[in-house]
Every structure is written in structure tokens, then in C-alpha cells.
Amino acid sequence: MSRRLLGVAVAATLAVGLTGCGSGGSSGSDNTFEIWIRQAPDSDSAKTAKKLADAFTKASGVQTKVVALFDDFETKLNQQAAQKQLPDIVINDTAQLGNMQSQGWLQQVDKAALAGGDQLSETAWKAATGSDGKYYAAPFSAQSFALIVRKDWREKVKMEPPATWADLAELATAFTERDPDGNGQKDTAGFVAPAGTKRGYASWYASSLIYANGGDFLTAAGAGKYTATVNDPKTVGAVQYLQDQFCRTKTVNPGAVSNDTTVTHEVFEKGQGGIYLVGPYVLARFVKSIGTDKLEVLPVPKGPSGGPGTLGEGENVYLMAGSPNQDAQKKFAEFAVSPEGQRIGMNKDANGAIVRLPVNTTVDLAAERQDPRWKVFQESYANAVYAPPVPNWAPIRQTSADAINAVWADCSADVKAAMDQLNTKLTQELQSQKAS
């Protein structure tokens, strides 16, 4: 089967067949082992992925091809599945497991037979577990969330690190009202937020505060079964807190309700806001672009009704179905989770880490990274909350994002009523997935 381009000029993918879909694998002479990763082409992260692949080739002799894609990654993966051309390996978000597994794209992973599997964090293994309790990936990278704050601004307005949500709101107000950058203009915001609906970002952003307040989207109700609880007072309280920042105190950067993370990173770098609730993957970038002395990492304060807790997520190594290179797939997964693979992915303190927090418990974070701010993220991971292993989390996150974004964009919206409506929709979604 010939190689084909995906829409724009991106690397072509090995022609392989999905299990049960007819094709028996590559029929051409080029049997390159293909690895897809959700990163921007030519980015520092894509270069780190290439280093990982090259080290694997040196160790195993397996020739590799890294395909880095960011925009519409899932759409392009669907196109490949339709053409029976799935790559051998996909490194992608933990939250995508249910979606890919439900479509029959993933091979099951034998945890006991995976060399080094016993060295991996049990919390990370949970994120590689399907709704049926079986493993469909090898854990690769983990992350929790924290506040990256403009330390120079905080010191300028003479305020202490926030210990409560009220403190956090006061700091955001000071950043908005008291000219922390000293340019004589009222042109800064407290929070910068990727609060748009694309890929469910509004829900993604709100998750850490929901978990910090003891709330949740779903509650387990037996083996593989869940109940929608997004209208619980603790969840409503977190969404209301954020609506207050958008609407009452107006401490969120303008345009946030339309932004994804790509735009929000730039907003923070341009000094348009001073508090960014985000994962550790942008820390090195901001240190380089803003200056290390101007930044600090602070834990997300416990909410008034619960916590502590933040969103937990990361990336898994997915062994895609239909590959003619199953032995190489297993070897790559084993290399990626090994201490050597994890260290390469961590990329020390430089920008481009594709392993944020190592999942291999034998890897010493402090020995690899000298920046002590990483420790805040590592400590937060102890209370991180992963998306539950429903058959497909993607529509639940997207539906939640649509509803949450709407109450931030419309200041007249009643948060409790909106969360009641969302709860009904999530219940219907669980029923459609036979997970209710």
C-alpha cells in the first residue's frame, strides 16, 4: 500500500491494517516503525521524541519514523484508521484511552510481561486501564497542575502566596487593578485561562479547581458504572468561583472564553496576566521567555468545601492494533518506560520535555532536574485525580466544556441551573455508553 500525505505536508504513515479490518499490514518494502506523538512539528518536544526514537533504534536496531502532529490530531488518526493505516505506536493523552479502545484501535498490554512494568507507579497504571479493568497502554508520563505565578508582580503588590481561594481572588484583583508591571496602564489581568471549547479546554481548566473543592464530574457506582454528579454543590461552587472571576471581579484575561492553550501560553508570556493554572510542561519555556527570577510555582489552594487535589493526566504509549511489528511495539514500550527512556523524555531542565513527571519510580526527579519548582508539581501529583475509565471520556469532557464555557461567557447565566442541565446530559451520555 502506498504512503500518503495527511492533508498538509506531514510525514506519511506506515500502511498497516486494523485488526478485523481486512489489511494484513505493509505490503511495500518500507517497513519503517512509525511513532505518532501529539506535539507541534519541529517543536522542542518533537525533537525530544526524535531523540527517544533514535536511542531506541540504537538499542534495538529497529528503524523508526516520528510523526509529530498537533492540530486535529484525533481527526487525522481517525482518517488513518479509515484507510487501515494506523501507526505502530501513538503517544497521546491518557484521557484518549477510552475513545481509542472503544474503536478497537488498541492492543491489550500484559502488565506482568512488560519488562520494567513493576517499576511503574500504580497511579500511572490506573491511567492505562480501560473500563473493563484491562490495560491498553504503557504509562509514559504523568503530570499534576499548579499555579505558575509572576513572582515579581506579587512582590510589587506586596502580597503573600495565596493559601485560600479568597487569597487567590485577592491576588488576581491586585494584578488587575494595581499595575503590577509598572507601565502606568491598567492593561494586566489576574488569571490567564484557556477557557474555550476546543478539545474541551474549559472543562480541562476547571477540573483542578473542581477537584480542589472536593467536587467531580462522575462518581463510581460499581464495576464500570458511574453516576453524573456535576451538579453537586462542591462542583457548582468551583464553577461559580470561576464565573465570579470572569464576570464580577473581571480578573481573567480578555478573550479567554475563546482561547486554547496555544494562545494562552502567549498571553502569559506577553505579560497580559499573572496567574496561570497549568501543567509543568510549559515551565522551561516560560523560564526562558520571561525569566527565571520573575516566576514561581505555587500549589493550588484547597477549596472551601474539599481538596486538596488537581487534575492528573499525562501520556501513555499506545500499541496500535493491526501492526505487523508487534515485537517492536513491545520493545519500544519497554524502552520508553525504562530509566533511560524516561530520562531522555524528561530532557532535564530544557524546554521540550515529553515526560513531565517520570512514571518509573526508580528515576530521581531531583537528580534530573535542578529547578526546584518541579517539586511542587510532584507533590501535587500525590492528590491528582485522573479522568475515570469510562468507555469514552472525550464526549463527557466536551459536553462539560460547552456548558462551563457558556456560564463564563454569559454573565447572566445561572451556574446551578446550567450544571443541572449538564448533569442530565452526562447521565444520557453514560447511558449511551452503557456505563450508567
SSE layout and pairing:
Blueprint (H helix, E strand, L loop, with lengths): L32 E6 L5 H17 L3 E6 L3 H10 L6 E5 L3 H6 L19 H5 L11 E6 L2 E5 H6 L8 H13 L11 E4 L8 H12 L5 E3 L5 E3 L4 H16 L12 H9 L3 E6 L4 H8 L4 E4 L11 E2 L1 E7 L6 H12 L1 H8 L10 E2 L6 H4 L5 H8 L2 E2 L8 H16 L5 H18 L4
Parallel strand pairs: 1-2, 1-3, 6-9, 11-14
Antiparallel strand pairs: 3-12, 4-12, 4-13, 5-9, 5-10, 7-8
Keywords: Signal, Transport
Organism: Nonomuraea antimicrobica
Pfam families: SBP_bac_1
Question: Descriptors for this entry?
Answer:
alpha/beta, D-Maltodextrin-Binding Protein, domain 2, 14 strands
Question: What can you tell me about this protein's structure?
Answer:
- There is one protein chain.
- Strands 2-1-3-12-4-13 form a six-stranded mixed beta sheet. It has a four-stranded mixed beta sheet with strand order 6-9-5-10.
- It has helices at 44-60, 73-82, 97-102, 122-126, 151-156, 165-177, 201-212, 233-248, 261-269, 283-290, 326-337, 339-346, 365-368, 374-381, 394-409, 415-432, and strands at residues 33-38, 64-69, 89-93, 138-143, 146-150, 189-192, 218-220, 226-228, 273-278, 295-298, 310-311, 313-319, 357-358, 384-385.
- Residues 1-29 have low confidence and may be disordered.
- α1 (44-60) links the parallel β1 and β2 (64-69).
- The protein folds into two domains: 33-144 and 312-385, Periplasmic binding protein-like II (D-Maltodextrin-Binding Protein, domain 2, 3-Layer(aba) Sandwich), CATH 3.40.190.10; 146-311 and 393-432, D-Maltodextrin-Binding Protein, domain 2, CATH 3.40.190.10.
- By secondary structure, it is α/β, with parallel strands linked by helices.
- It comes from Nonomuraea antimicrobica.
